[in-house]
Design brief:
By secondary structure, the chain is of the alpha/beta class. It has two domains: 173 residues, Flavin prenyltransferase-like (Rossmann fold, 3-Layer(aba) Sandwich), CATH 3.40.50; 213 residues, Rossmann fold (3-Layer(aba) Sandwich). Helices cover 34% and strands 23% of the residues. Strands 12-11-8-13-16-17-18-19 form an eight-stranded mixed beta sheet, with helices on both faces. Helix 4 packs across helix 6. The longest helix is centred in the C-terminal third of the chain and has 22 residues. Bound molecules: ligand PMT. Ligand PMT binds next to helix 10, helix 12 and strand 16.
């Protein structure tokens, strides 16, 4: 899918070691349909040649304000007007300072003054330089001026330091760029989403859980963020990176998930209960590892509180979407949960079918309201999530207008 189809991106490359990643960044932006024109600072040319970036972008690379030939092809004012976005990656502390000061002492800083397009900065510098008061003050000023700051990431740096200051990965910048142009139809909404399994301790080393990977819930969180929602993701233990831009609350047990969900739905417009919450917990969790002295052992269980049903009991409740994981009589059981738990919608999946449901990349859902149903056919969970988020919003808007 070409999510950046016909988008015109000026990529500003400045003099940081991460400049070596920019040919790949240009290639990936073009794969998504973008037209990319590269502008380099003098410093950038110490790390990567204009010729490499010209070859991958298929466009002339501009590097000087005073180049009469380049100005003949596309002058700096035209370039500033041409752009749908100016993306500076990597952005050094120096270029950040110069843009903050409103300087126009090279082509890139001049473009930033001359454009009405959104400006995005992907900082890349030593962790000490990132934390320096001057850099932080510059970043705050830029944020106030509606400049978008993507990153930096954390990790080992070229200089051997460890900490914040790495340019985001190319994949992350490409995803954020695609998301940037998506219709932000959930802009004023706050979604709280539960995802993944819970773990109910038996003793210090054993627990009861299920096969939920968190993929479905994380995909919903990502789709809602793309559509502009503020997202709080309450997640059981999973091996997934949190979608960029969400508030992640990590929990282990059903009781912890219950507490965090009830606390966070207060301001939410929408609550999506995608987590596979353990229905029971162990009555007496052993303090020490249980020894296997007996042939048989019994573990007494107590029922956990139902999180989504308790959210539905709140006086000022959000729009509530539950999930139903069923292996038989899917519609019958799903509709039963919709009514019993007092939900607005329920998304049912047949988890007995191979290749979908728990711990799979794909899924198929049927979304039930009290009066209708909509099928979302088998597809990758990212695609399913996008359709689900849009459908949930339609039902939400219908309910809000009804009031
Ligand atoms: O995580 P993946 O590997 O991607 O798999 C996705 C999924 C199969 C887990 C997901 O699509 C799904 O079906 N999630 C709900 C699983 C489940 O627990 O279903 P249920 O039918 O047992 O529960 C019904 C609803 O009540 C669910 O919204 C559940 O979150 C909620 N519930 C259940 C028990 C409880 N104590 N509190 C709850 O809120």
């Amino acid at each position: 899918m070409q999510t950046l189809q016909d988008k015109k991106i000026v990529l500003g490359v400045t003099g940081g070691i991460a400049a070596y990643k920019t040919p790949e960044l240009v290639r990936r932006l073009k794969d998504h349909g973008a037209d990319v024109r590269v502008v380099m600072t003098e410093g950038a040319k110490a790390f990567i040649t204009p010729l490499s970036l010209q070859a991958v972008s298929g466009n002339h690379v501009s590097d000087s304000l005073l180049d009469s030939q380049a100005e003949l092809a596309m002058g700096h004012i035209e370039l500033a007007k041409w752009a749908d976005m100016i993306l500076i990656a990597p952005a050094t502390a120096d270029v950040i300072a110069r843009i903050t000061a409103g300087m126009a002492n090279d082509l890139l800083s001049t473009l930033c003054l001359a454009t009405s397009a959104p400006i995005v900065i992907a900082p890349a510098m030593n962790q000490q330089m990132w934390h320096a008061k001057a850099t932080q003050a510059n970043i705050s000023t830029l944020i106030q001026r509606d400049v978008f700051i993507w990153g930096p990431g954390s990790g080992e740096q070229a200089c051997g330091d460890v900490g914040l200051g790495r340019m985001l990965d190319v994949d992350e910048i490409v995803t954020l760029s695609s998301d940037f142009f998506v219709d932000k139809y959930l802009q004023d909404q706050h979604w709280v989403i539960t995802a993944g399994p819970t773990r109910e301790a038996i003793d210090p080393v054993r627990y009861i859980s299920n096969h939920s990977s968190g993929k479905m819930g994380y995909a919903i969180a990502h789709a809602a963020i793309r559509a502009g929602a503020k997202v709080t993701l309450i997640s059981g233990p999973v091996n997934l990176a949190a979608p960029i831009g969400c508030e992640l609350i990590q929990v282990t047990s059903a009781q912890q998930m219950h507490e965090k969900a009830l606390k966070n739905v207060a301001q939410a417009t929408t609550f999506v209960a995608c987590a596979a919450v353990a229905d029971y917990r162990v009555a007496d969790i052993a303090e020490e590892k249980i020894k296997k002295d007996n042939e048989h052992m019994q573990v007494a269980l107590i029922k956990n509180r139902d999180i989504v049903a308790d959210v539905a009991k709140l006086a000022d409740k959000p729009f509530i979407v539950g999930f139903a994981a069923e292996t038989q009589n899917v519609e019958h059981y799903a509709r039963g949960k919709l009514m019993r738990k007092n939900l607005d919608l329920i998304a049912a999946n047949d988890v007995a079918k191979a290749g979908q449901g728990f711990n799979s990349d794909d899924n198929a859902l049927t979304l039930y309201s009290a009066i209708d149903k909509t099928d979302i056919p088998l597809a990758n969970k990212q695609i399913i999530a996008k359709q689900l988020v849009s459908l949930i919003n339609k039902h939400y808007l219908a309910k809000v207008t009804e009031k």
